[in-house]
Every structure is written in structure tokens, then in C-alpha cells.
Design goal:
heterodimer; A: Helicase, Ruva Protein, domain 3; Dna Topoisomerase Vi A Subunit, Chain: A, domain 2; two-stranded antiparallel ribbon; B: Rossmann fold; Glutathione S-transferase Yfyf (Class Pi), Chain A, domain 2; 2 domains; six-stranded antiparallel sheet
């Protein structure tokens, strides 16, 4: 009996959270259009029904121009975004800004999982080469096999252009490791230098707070001190 | 290290209770259902951040209450530590040491080591190999930090490989290269696990044998045999040879996830041929050896919880057991029995002091 009563209390609890707008229980919408909009928003990652409703109600309060602008941006996203035909980075042109930049070293390729990794490495402003975006990692659990990511395209690049070095910059997870290993097997016979990101104690970290696996690895793979001096 | 005080609030059948314990032996008597085992479980909670019996935390809250709280005061080298555990329905488990909340509960495990001896131990003999692997893993992980990481990674790679085999069976295509890719990971993490298990068994057997002969006092040879496909084969070759079998079975048929232990008394398997008393003695010796192993590795004597100890054990074996437990190589002791005098009499005969608590309905 208690549980049933609690269930009935829910709409009132929701009411308490919002100040100005009447919030309906998410199961019962007064309008089909509203319901559809909530459904679309809640299909986004990390957005549940309640958050979706908040977004929709917020948009409803804005003037018509804002919503129009919003939908135009979304439309453009689907019409105008392309994937660079070299590196599969997201781009406005057939070849992305990095690949078409004459100042970048075209002979060095950094392999990353997705565009977020490109952004992360770009923001360091230390990397002068180009990228290759795989678009995922080998993981049968997520139904991703070697042919579902851009590995054959990478091999094609190695066959057709002059490449000196391939940097494998994938996450240090089980899947990242496996993908690294697969890539290595595929490209080891090409005349290229194959490198991977250094793994070790994070910059500014105190040793006593470093996790044991990282610290053990850093001790094993220690580097000559000269290498740590500014070049 | 010992537990000095424990407060319970809404834990299982305890609404509110406070206990003070002796540094050495503590006895709890009382009728069925009075809360003897629940008290031991509360102590277990403060060491392992979970119940020995029920893995669902919220089901340990007293019915119709919203939360339970446990507070244990430990004394370690003269310093007091307060372990605080509170569980609210539908909320994250909160575990504190000296008012500092743990980010990861795994950090707490091993700080106040404990060994539980319970009638449920018989499952180690009766159930499938997974129970015995868990017993192995639980002990090794306490003293080998890499072990648990290797095990988690191994299980992840195993899950990936099994899904791949199932996908191949469903789609009818054959992708040997991808399957072999996961072999590499299984070997990389599986081999250190295998080595750690071998080493553990080697160290463990002599300790175990010595306890068995001390409790039973008759000349029986006990042994414990580690069974692993890796004993005689190279893991990489095993996986390669099993490829077609794995494909047909749509899962990985060899590896350390198939390891097992067989228990023997006089070369006969305990599961089939041992009497209930022999089984009980065998299990007790396993647990005592576990406590001894932890003592050596962690340089700390674990707390020993003995639940319903009179179950299936004769008076002589019990007396010998208690004599072993109160000597200096074991830590604080908690014993329960339904009979209020039986156990205290054993202690009296041995002239060993014990703190006697008879639980009454009013305390609960």
C-alpha cells in the first residue's frame, strides 16, 4: 500500500523543483507535439526524460527566432559536415584543415580513436603532424570489429603516400591495447617507425599519490635525464 | 589489532545495540533467531564493506526502516580507528574511516583483516569450481596488488572473446585473426594469475596440513590439488589448439577461468568420501590456514569469526580447535553457539578467559 501512495506523490515532487512552469508527470503529456519533442531530446546521450522536458519547456519560452536558428544549425550539421577523405576528421571541406595545412608534416600520422582525441592533442599545440581518426576501437561487445573502423584506410594511406612515422595514441584500456596490437601486426612490415605515447607519472603529480601500476611502469621504463631537459 | 566496540542501528534484527568486546575471546549465546549470526555479519561488514550472506546492501536494513548504521571502534597499535558504515535505501553506500569517506571501497579491504568460519563454508566442497576460485582469489588479492587488476583485465578480454565467438556462430563467418587477437590479452593477463595461484598453493599446503593434524589428532593425510590446464601446457598453444572447439562451443573452453582445486583426505576426494565431521575439520583447517597466511603476508593477525561452531564437531576436536585459536598466532575471536554453557565450559577446562554474552530478546 505504501508504495502505491508514494507513486501518486511523484507529480507534486516535480512541481516543487520548478518555479514558474507547471511540470506534468513525464508519462502523461498534454500535447503530442510536446511528447515527440521530449522523445527526440531524450535520445541524446546523458539526457533522460526529465532533462529532455526541461530543455523543451525552456525552448518554448524563447521567441520564435531562437528556435528557428536552432533548427537551422541542426539542419546545417546534417547537410554540411563532411569527413576528411584523408584522415576522417570532421571538416567543412573534403580535406580537413590539418591535412590541407602545408606547414603540417604529412609524413607523420597520429592514430586516434575519435575527434575528441584530435581536439585534445591539438590543444597541446605540440604536434606538427597529421591524424588518422579510426572512429572506434575493436570491441566485440559493442559489435565493433577490425573492419568497422578505418584500419584498411590507414593501410591504404601507408601504401600510397610517403609516411615516416606512425604514432599510436589510443586509450590505455583493454580495447585500446587490443586495437594497438592489431594495428601493429598490420603495419609492422611497412618501412615506417611505429611509436606509442609515453605512459607514466602525470605532470605535477606527487609520487605517493600515483597509482601503483603507473608508478611500476614508470620505474621499469625510466628515461635518461637528458631527455627531460627542455629541448 | 582488535575490535573494541560496535554500535548497530537498524541492522537486520537489531534496532539499536551497543557491544563492548574483549581483546581475546568473545562468546555469544542465545536461542535461534536472536541475532548471533547477524552480530558476526555486522563485524564482517566493518572489515569487508559488505555482508557475508547477502550481497544486496539494502536487504540488510531492518524491515520498514530507511537506513542502517554500523560504527566499529578498532584498536591498532594503541591507536583508535573508527569505521563507520551507513546504508540508506536507494543511495550510495557510505563508508568512513576516522570520519574520512572512502572514494573506493577497495582501499578499505585488508586494513582490518578478518576470517569468517561459517557452516556455509561447506559450499566450498559441494558447489562448482567458481566457489573455489573465489576462495583462492579472495586470499591472493589481499596480499598481491596486481592480482586483482590482472583478474579484472583477464575477465574483460574473456568476455570480448566469448562475444566474438557467439557473433561468429550467429553470422556464420569465420574470423580467426580477431579471435587470436584476444588470445594475446588472455595470455598476457592469465599467465601471471596462474603463477600467483601456483605460488599461493605451494605456500598454503604446509600450513593447511599442520592445522588439520592439530585439530583431528589422527593420522590422516590431507591434500589439496590445484588443477589448471596451464600446468602442462603453454597457454598460447592451448588457445590455438582449442580454436575449433571454442568455435563449436561459442565460448572459450580453456584458460585460468577453468581452474579448480580438489580436496583429498587419504587420497580420497572429500566431496564423495569424507564424513560430515571430516569435511568440517577440513574446512576449518582451510580457514585457519587462510588466517595464518594473511598474518604472514599482512603482518597483522586477522579477527576470527566462528559461527555455530558446535555444528558437526565432537567435543575433543572442538577443544583442540579452541586451544589452537587462543594461542598467540591468532587475533581476536568471536564464537557463537545456541547452547549458553557448552562453549564457556570448554574455555573453563582449558583455563582460558572468555567474555560471555548471552543475547536476550530485550537487547535486540
Amino acid at each position: 500500500m505504501n508504495n502505491i501512495k508514494e507513486g501518486c506523490m511523484k507529480p507534486k515532487l516535480l512541481n516543487f523543483e520548478s518555479e514558474s512552469t507547471e511540470i506534468y508527470p513525464v508519462e502523461k503529456f498534454p500535447s503530442k507535439t510536446l511528447e515527440k519533442a521530449v522523445e527526440v531530446f531524450s535520445s541524446l546521450p546523458g539526457v533522460g526524460k526529465k532533462t529532455a522536458l526541461r530543455y523543451v519547456l525552456h525552448l518554448l519560452k524563447e521567441d520564435a527566432g531562437t528556435i528557428e536558428n536552432f533548427s537551422e544549425v541542426l539542419q546545417n550539421l546534417s547537410n554540411n559536415i563532411q569527413h576528411c577523405k584523408n584522415c576522417f576528421n570532421i571538416s567543412d571541406n573534403p580535406v580537413c584543415e590539418v591535412c590541407s595545412n602545408p606547414k603540417r608534416e604529412q609524413e607523420v600520422i597520429c592514430i586516434v580513436q575519435d575527434i575528441r582525441d584530435v581536439l585534445a592533442i591539438e590543444s597541446t599545440m605540440q604536434y606538427k603532424g597529421v591524424y588518422h581518426v579510426l572512429g572506434g576501437l575493436i570491441s566485440p561487445i559493442d559489435s565493433v570489429g577490425p573492419n568497422d573502423i578505418k584500419i584498411n584506410e590507414l593501410i591504404h594511406r601507408l601504401q600510397t603516400s610517403r609516411i615516416n612515422e606512425v604514432i599510436m595514441a589510443l586509450s590505455t584500456t583493454m580495447e585500446g591495447d587490443t586495437t594497438n596490437f592489431y594495428l601493429f601486426k598490420k603495419i609492422k612490415d611497412f618501412p615506417v617507425k611505429i611509436t606509442t605515447l609515453a605512459r607514466g607519472v602525470a605532470f605535477g603529480d606527487e609520487l605517493e599519490y600515483t597509482d601503483e601500476i603507473t608508478l611500476a611502469r614508470s620505474i621499469t621504463n625510466r628515461v635518461p635525464y637528458e631527455n627531460t631537459l627542455a629541448r | 589489532m582488535y575490535l573494541k566496540e560496535l554500535s548497530l542501528f537498524n541492522f537486520k534484527n537489531y534496532s539499536e545495540a551497543f557491544f563492548e568486546f574483549s581483546e581475546k575471546a568473545n562468546f555469544f549465546g542465545g536461542n535461534n533467531g536472536i541475532g548471533k549470526t547477524n552480530l558476526l555479519d555486522a563485524i564482517y561488514y566493518t572489515s569487508f564493506c559488505k555482508s557475508f550472506f547477502n550481497p544486496i546492501d539494502s536487504q540488510n536494513i531492518q524491515s520498514e526502516k530507511d537506513f542502517f548504521m554500523l560504527k566499529g571502534l578498532y584498536l591498532k597499535d594503541g591507536e583508535e580507528s573508527i569505521v563507520h558504515c551507513s546504508i540508506k535505501r536507494n543511495q550510495k553506500k557510505l563508508f568512513k574511516l576516522n570520519k574520512k569517506t572512502y572514494e573506493r571501497l577497495a582501499e578499505h579491504i585488508g586494513k582490518f583483516p578478518l576470517v569468517m568460519v561459517s557452516p556455509a563454508d561447506v559450499l566450498l566442497i559441494l558447489e562448482g569450481s567458481e566457489t573455489r576460485r573465489k576462495f583462492l582469489d579472495g586470499i591472493i588479492a589481499q596480499s598481491n596488488k596486481n592480482y586483482l587488476d590482472n583478474l579484472l583485465n583477464y575477465n574483460r578480454a574473456l568476455a570480448q572473446r566469448n562475444v566474438l565467438l557467439k557473433q561468429m556462430a550467429a553470422s556464420g563467418r569465420c574470423d580467426k585473426e580477431s579471435v587470436f587477437l584476444w588470445n594475446e590479452q588472455l595470455v598476457k593477463f592469465g599467465n601471471p594469475i596462474y603463477e600467483a595461484r601456483c605460488e599461493f598453493i605451494r605456500d598454503f599446503i604446509p600450513i593447511f596440513r599442520s592445522y588439520y593434524s592439530q585439530i583431528s589428532d589422527i593420522n590422516e593425510t590431507v591434500s589439496l590439488v590445484y588443477e589448471s590446464m596451464l600446468l602442462e601446457n603453454n597457454f598460447t598453444e592451448l588457445l590455438e589448439n582449442a580454436y575449433s572447439r571454442d568455435r563449436a562451443a561459442t565460448h572459450t573452453t580453456c584458460g585460468i577461468h577453468k581452474d579448480d582445486m580438489t580436496f583429498f583426505i587419504n587420497d580420497f576426494p572429500v566431496k564423495k568420501f569424507a564424513s560430515q565431521g571430516q569435511q568440517k575439520t577440513y574446512l576449518l583447517s582451510l580457514r585457519l590456514a587462510q588466517a595464518q597466511y594473511i598474518t604472514e603476508k599482512l603482518k597483522m593477525k586477522p579477527i576470527i569469526l566462528l559461527d555455530d561452531i558446535y555444528d558437526k564437531l565432537d567435543d575433543e576436536r572442538l577443544a583442540r580447535l579452541i586451544a589452537i585459536l587462543v594461542n598467540d598466532s591468532f587475533g581476536q575471536l568471536f564464537i557463537t553457539d545456541t547452547h549458553p554453557q557448552r562453549i564457556p565450559q570448554v574455555f573453563e577446562k582449558l583455563q582460558i578467559p572468555v567474555k560471555i554474552n548471552i543475547l536476550q530478546a530485550s537487547e535486540v
